[in-house]
């Protein structure tokens, strides 16, 4: 009986088919584990690709929004460049050239008389750039808002009257000159004054006088002005 058990044990130990079955089982287990690992990696890669696609979409949207903002800013800057030079009430006169110079009499010589202050019309025109002084009315009319310089002179002689002159802006006196009547010891006098004024477009400036004022071919009594700069 012992011999039968021994032979059975040897037969069981030395059975090649049993060994092959065991190896096959182990192989299958190893292959299954490998396939599981591969699927896990593939799923991780798939998730990573999905995340990158989402991130790329967001970046694309941000770039598009930035491009639109740049275009809007460029249009705004271009608009500012066009409108920037317009800084006056009358933009067409921004670079205006304005100047005039006149004397009282166009011809001859003599005194002009008036007891009360009245408009003095300078009829002889040396310069009238822009034609903003009128030798018909005696008014200078500002074409543009800006700062202007004015000067006027008067000559006193051959009269028993004194002389008073004033520069007026919109009929409001601004600056004066004046002198007593001439005497044998002081037979003639020259008077002058000047002023810098800020004017709006349409403001008028003129000279008023009372008494007697002389002019001749030497052009002793004058009224001049020019634009210093526009505002």
From TrEMBL:
Gene3D superfamilies: 2.60.120.40. Transmembrane segments: none annotated. InterPro entries: C1q_dom (IPR001073), Cerebellin_Synaptic_Org (IPR050822), Tumour_necrosis_fac-like_dom (IPR008983). One of its GO terms (cellular component) is extracellular region. The keyword Hydrolase does not apply. It comes from the Eukaryota. Residues 1-33 are annotated as: Disordered. It holds the Pfam family C1q. Residues 1-14 have a biased composition (Basic and acidic residues). Residues 42-76 form a coiled coil. The keyword RNA-binding does not apply. It is found in: Secreted. Residues 93-231 form the C1q domain. Keywords: Coiled coil, Secreted, Signal. This is Complement C1q-like protein 2.
């Amino acid at each position: 009986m012992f011999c039968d058990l021994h032979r059975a044990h040897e037969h069981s130990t030395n059975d090649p088919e049993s060994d092959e079955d065991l190896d096959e089982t182990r192989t299958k287990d190893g292959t299954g584990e490998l396939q599981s690992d591969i699927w896990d990696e593939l799923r991780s890669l798939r998730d990573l690709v999905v995340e990158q696609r989402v991130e790329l979409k967001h970046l694309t949207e941000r770039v598009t929004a930035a491009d639109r903002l740049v275009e809007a800013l460029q249009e705004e800057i271009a608009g500012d460049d066009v409108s920037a030079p317009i800084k006056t009430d009358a933009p067409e006169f921004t670079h205006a050239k304005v100047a005039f110079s006149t004397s009282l009499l166009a011809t001859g010589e003599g005194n002009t008389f008036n007891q009360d202050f009245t408009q003095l019309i300078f009829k002889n025109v040396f310069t009238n750039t822009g034609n903003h002084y009128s030798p018909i009315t005696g008014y200078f009319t500002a074409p543009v808002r800006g700062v202007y310089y004015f000067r006027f002179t008067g000559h006193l002689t051959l009269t028993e009257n004194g002389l008073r002159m004033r520069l007026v802006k919109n009929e409001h006196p601004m600056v004066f000159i004046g002198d007593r009547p001439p005497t044998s010891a002081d037979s003639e006098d020259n008077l002058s004054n000047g002023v810098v004024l800020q004017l709006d477009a349409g403001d008028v400036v003129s000279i008023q006088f009372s008494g007697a004022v002389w002019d001749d071919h030497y052009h002793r009594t004058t009224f001049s002005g020019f634009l210093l700069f526009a505002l």
